[in-house]
Amino acid sequence: MSEFNEQSTTRDVIAGISLAGKLAMVTGASSGLGVETARTLAAAGATVVMCARDSGKLEAAVAEVRAAVPGAQVETLIMDLADLVSVRAAAAEALSRFPSIQLLINNAGVMACPLMRTAQGFEMQFGTNHVGHFLFTCLLAPALQAGAPGRVVNLSSAGHKFANFNFDDPNYREREYEKWQAYGESKTANVLFSVGLDSRLKSHGVRAFAVHPGVIMTGLARHMDEADFATLSERSPKGEALVFKSVEQGAATSVWAATSPDLEEKGGIYLENCKISDSSVQDSSTGVESYALDTSAAERLWTMSEELVEQAFSFDS
Ligand SMILES: NC(=O)c1ccc[n+]([C@@H]2O[C@H](COP(=O)([O-])OP(=O)(O)OC[C@H]3O[C@@H](n4cnc5c(N)ncnc54)[C@H](OP(=O)(O)O)[C@@H]3O)[C@@H](O)[C@H]2O)c1
User: Fold this and answer.
1) Domain containing residue 300: CATH number
2) Is 315 among the domain residues?
3) Against a cut of 0.70, is the pTM above it?
4) pLDDT tens-digit map of 227-266
5) How many structural domains is the chain composed of?
6) pLDDT tens, position by position, 285-306
7) Residue 50 C-alpha to ligand 1 middle, in angstroms?
8) Which single residue of 2, 26, 262, 266 could bond 275 by disulfide (Cβ 3.0 to 4.6 Å)?
9) Nearest to 258, CA basis, from 94, 99, 77, 22
């Protein structure tokens, strides 16, 4: 049972843990939770590969980490998750530079943007949050297998409660776009992907987890206006005001997922507040919906994702 809670910080959950000799990769490391996650893993001794699409923002984030952690071992990788050509190039570069990976934190994300499409025409939230990470992770599987034991952490959200995954029209070709619905579907996909990935990689010593970090004021809110904040408050339990975490509290569950000894022999599960989510406790902001952990839906999403990226993956050695 975890000794931590919703107030625990990255400093609390990493205390006493050494990551010396380990390689950790963090997507979306140019902003918000990704920077704090990278900083914490570097402070614990890991070599951290900070991935982002914008080289200027990434360099600023690297400078922030280096200033906070003298001697930090930091590498960078440029990748635009909204373009599978970029994802394939980044994965190929990563495999040649980092043949052995222990931790992959799929943290990048976009929320509630207007209808936009990725380079391959996927709806932007589904394409960035799920499809890009699906391809990146599957292409990196040989390095994860070589580095085992290891973990993959997929940033989901309590926003998965907004919507089950829509297998009929994942890219909003035939229905009216609704930005929160699309975010919810993409975040449900992140949980289902964790379930499907864990079932494929656990025999290789690599476990996968989905994380809800809490509600944290970061760049993620860039597409939100006043009315959106009101909408989110209405969706919270009893319509209460949103309870915000600090960035250090928000990144704590990702770091706990990646490093906690409490999670050994576990995987394919949803974590929040530095704990395994109790699926029997359900309200509009805590707990995990059963549809997100459904193994047949996870298999269906896996097959659909392989079709979308036009590549099938077998992890048999
Ligand atoms: N903050 C919250 O309250 C909250 C709640 C639940 C879940 N989450 C999840 O936590 C994760 C981290 O979010 P955050 O709060 O730290 O948000 P953030 O500050 O906006 O960081 C998101 C990161 O993702 C990157 N990104 C977006 N689109 C990308 C693309 N096409 N290719 C590569 N990178 C891309 C961003 O890069 P740019 O700066 O270049 O756009 C940024 O580095 C997300 O997955 C989010 O859904 C956050």
Assistant:
1) 3.40.50.720
2) no
3) yes
4) 888 877 776 655 667 889 999 999 999 999 999 999 999 9
5) 1
6) 789 999 999 999 999 999 999 9
7) 13
8) 2
9) 22
